[in-house]
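quick one before i forget lol
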Amino acid sequence: MIVTKRRSLRTVAVGAIAATSVAMAGTAAMAATPVSQPSAPQAAAVNAGPSSWGSGTKTAPDRLTGGPVYLKSITTSRSARYDRMVIDLSGGNGKLGYTIGYVGTFRADGSGKRIPVKGGAILQVSVNALNYNPITGRQTYAGQTGKTLPGVNLTGYKAFKDTRFGVSFEGQTQLALGVRGKLPFRVSQSGHQLIVDVARSW
């Protein structure tokens, strides 16, 4: 009986040591094996240029000198990866202030009037510039509240579905881009141009 008990105790001890060794080996293996991370959104594939891609609101403060700034023209173009809108400006020097982001409803500043915009999402572009020369009072860009942007044809575009002009109010002009969905976009400035790119997909 004593021998049996001693053998039983020895068997239990050996088993405990073996189990501890296996657990420690398993822990070490887990530490050595990298944990897989979720893949980044496909938007990273188009992350090129001076600013980053994303669907969050983007803003910049005014850093302008040399007088008032006003709209000169607005054009669009497209590439294999994104659709682009370019706002040409006149007057002033430096960087233009803006707020660009997705909104549920596009409303004219001042009146609050709702302006319908086609597409799955609305990207509102508000820039610190006017569509008229404040010195002469002459209109510099022929945008009309609630109307599509003059001369812009979006036939064949993948991201852009519609454009609308809001108003120039208290030193700021608002525009809207109807987009297929809430797609990532980026904003950059080059000289007197403000550039908005909307990716065709995530």
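fyi The helical segments are 2-32.
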